[in-house]
Design goal:
Helices cover 64% and strands 7% of the residues. The protein has helices at 7-15, 22-31, 41-53, 77-88, 99-105, 112-143, 150-186; strands at 20-21, 57-62, 70-75. The protein has a three-stranded antiparallel beta sheet with strand order 1-3-2. The chain is elongated and about 70 Å long. The mean pLDDT is 91.
Length: 187
């Protein structure tokens, strides 16, 4: 059975906020969803075309002075119904694809110092990610105060912050285990 493309729902959901061009969608995705859901232009434009062909969105040319025309997409009522129906369904299994974990799994093939360096690097990335999310939380809490979407956006941010803290703490535990393993071998 073919996997259903969830990009369509990300795009339909973003278009519930306002009409947008593919470029606008990419910018908003990077700013809002990008911490837990990524999209690229190579996905966005073909899916928008497909959604338009299916009658879920409509596109209209918008003229901008000094720039090429851009196509702005709006959600149709059919698109809104499909999106709302999808929202009501249970979420499927969330596969994890993590290159760091894949490399750690095969870490026995590297010198221990290299593995430790990789874990330290991952810990640093988690700490930076946590700081970025905390900054973003302050910004959107101020910029979107009173917006009915804000509590939901903050919940997704809380997930990201919890995940970053977990990664940071888990890396610390991995480093402790590696050090403990070395000490046990010496004894």
């Amino acid at each position: 059975m073919a996997r259903e493309n969830k990009t369509r729902y990300a795009l339909l959901g973003l278009l519930t906020m306002s009409p947008m061009s593919g470029y606008d969608i990419k910018k908003l995705t990077d700013f809002s969803l990008g911490y837990f859901w990524s999209e690229n232009y190579g996905h966005i434009y073909p899916i928008l075309k497909k959604l338009e062909d299916e009658g879920l969105v409509t596109g209209r040319a918008e003229h901008t002075r000094g720039k090429p025309d851009r196509k702005v997409f709006s959600l149709t009522e059919t698109g809104r119904r499909e999106f709302d129906e999808w929202l009501g369904l249970p979420s499927g299994k969330q596969p994890i694809r993590n290159e760091f974990l894949l490399k750690l799994f095969f870490g026995r093939r590297l010198p221990r110092a290299d593995v430790e360096a990789k874990v330290l690097d991952e810990r640093g990335r988690a700490a930076v990610y946590l700081a970025e999310l905390e900054t973003l939380e302050k910004r959107i809490s101020e910029d979107f105060r009173g917006n009915e979407g804000l509590p939901y956006w903050l919940m997704t941010l809380d997930f990201g912050k919890s995940f970053a803290r977990m990664m940071r703490d888990w890396c610390d535990e991995c480093l402790r285990k590696m050090k403990s393993n070395i000490e046990e071998r010496k004894a």
